[in-house]
Amino acid sequence: MVTLTLDRLSAHYGRHQILSEVTTPTFAGGQMVALLGPNAAGKSTLFRRILGLLDGDGEVHIEGATCERPVAYMPQETGVNAVLTVYESVLLARMQGRRLNVKPEDLAEVDRALDELGIVALGERDIGDLSGGQRQMVGAAQALVQNPEVLLLDEPTSALDLHRQIQLLSILRRLAKDRGMLVIAALHDLGHALRFTDQALVLQGGTLVDCGPTEEVVTPELLYRVYHVTARIERCSKGRPQLIVEEAV
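The structure corresponding to this sequence follows.
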């Protein structure tokens, strides 16, 4: 099973340090991890360092991967080509880095990704005609169709309505467990983090604040220190943790 560990990971933009020696325990396939922190905390930069798109000190250790390109990434802006249909754009993502010699199994994987996300009906639509939320679901399909062992998602629910947010996060959690995939998602909704993720990693000013089981990390004390709000966490009738924010301080 794939594992990922960050060891003193740092990154700079020019002379400005964005990440400072981020070290984590080992995250294993089958888990869903929330990457948390306020705006400009360094979340997107951390993803770029993991992907090797930025240079810096420290190391990313990915062990147990069984394919040549185990990591897939869904950025905040998907950059999809407006002249393509949804089906074509997902197929293109499937063929990324390969010759365009499309095989039946490639088409089957596109069909599966669209079906898993409930967007089969969008297949023949032009990307340019879609809403922001629909484009975001297509971006998720483009990442999933690569069958990654490590899936990085940068604010995957930011453009989705509440129904689609719950749907997508539920699907990602299920796929992580079913496929033994490690999913790391940058999230602003801490309630979603509490409900759907197993582990949480919190950044503030490019520095790791805390890392561990989500319910142990997302506490009123952390919310006050990092997000500058007073809040409490209570259990609903189904035993799930619920975040109640009282005020900004």
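The first helix runs from residue 43 to 51.
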